[in-house]
Amino acid sequence: MMPPKFQLLALVLFALAMLFIENQIRKLEESRAKLERTMARFELREVEQRQNRDTVRESPVLSESDDLLIIYNRVPKTGSTSFTNIAYDLCAKNRYHVLHINTTKNNPVMSLQDQVRFVRNVTSWKEMKPGFYHGHVAYLDFSKFSVRAKPIYINVVRDPIERLVSYYYFLRFGDDYRPGLRRRKQGDKKTFDECVASGGSDCAPEKLWLQIPFFCGHSSECWNVGSHWALEQAKYNLVNEYLLVGVTEELEDFIMMLEAALPRFFRGATDLYRTGKKSHLRKTSEKKPPTKESISKLQQSDVWKMENEFYEFALEQFQFVRAHGVRERDGELFVLTQNFFYEKIYPKVN
């Protein structure tokens, strides 16, 4: 028999030995688990890389963000040049293409064959994706041509009388964008008020009929002056087919909201508009505000009432969208961050 003190020492040593062995076993198990996780991640990465290589080899498609298309079918004299220059200034930095749609004699209506050509070009021209297309073209419904992905439409509208006055003087005096270019009505010194008083054709109420048909589209009824069907169709398209429609008077807010919604294209646009020289590039020369009498005479026409109804409809929709996406703090507007999240996700993942 061993003396009691040696027995106690032996038990202590045995216990220490067991603890040491258990600790080593635990470390080995942790190392094995770590190694298994590392191998699993490596295998997963290998599978993903192999799938990516196979995908590229089988179907060289663009990523979702690079497949985006924006069409800005700009209405004349609504501040479209100022906004378009923002897109040109950002395209290299944000890696997208800008293309101007130049139609013969600035005709906003395309022939049927040109509609087909345009839709095919825009949707299949991979080298020009992502792309920002702009031009004085009426809305074109891509869904009629059985394409898989429709472009994102945006636009800007303006008070109809202010737009007409700006266009009237633009045809006679041009602007500060290309001051040397001779305009169609150059040399005509008659003011807008004089034109209204004499019943001239360039200031007739029918000349107000432009924003409605641009949003209505390529149907013949869209271009029938005073068509109530065209007005309702323009409203429908504005709400259902356009991502955002701004107003000239609040162009900065329009740009800020686009930057928040589509940073792939418009990252940096708000600062560029506020500080860049091109943001206020184009201003109509020699423009004189109309008198109350001229405005009142135009406002008596049914065409003005319809165009103004459409403008106010667009303004209300824009202010509604802005109210749900923008807040004011210390006199400055800021865009709200993401205000939704996901929960109760099933089935549960271990």
Automatic annotation (TrEMBL):
Q: What is its main location?
A: Golgi
GO CC annotations, alphabetized: Golgi membrane
Q: Which residues form a coiled coil?
A: 18-52
Q: Where is the signal peptide?
A: 1-17
Keyword Oxidoreductase applies: no
Read off the Pfam families from this record. Sulfotransfer_2
Compartment annotation: Golgi apparatus membrane
Q: Which UniProt keywords apply?
A: Coiled coil, Disulfide bond, Glycoprotein, Golgi apparatus, Membrane, Signal, Signal-anchor, Transferase, Transmembrane, Transmembrane helix
| Membrane topology value | Single-pass type II membrane protein
- Molecular functions (GO terms): heparan sulfate 2-sulfotransferase activity
Lineage: superkingdom: Eukaryota
Q: Which family does it belong to?
A: Belongs to the sulfotransferase 3 family.
User: What is the protein's given name?
Assistant: Heparan sulfate 2-O-sulfotransferase 1
Organism, per UniProt?
A: Bagarius yarrelli
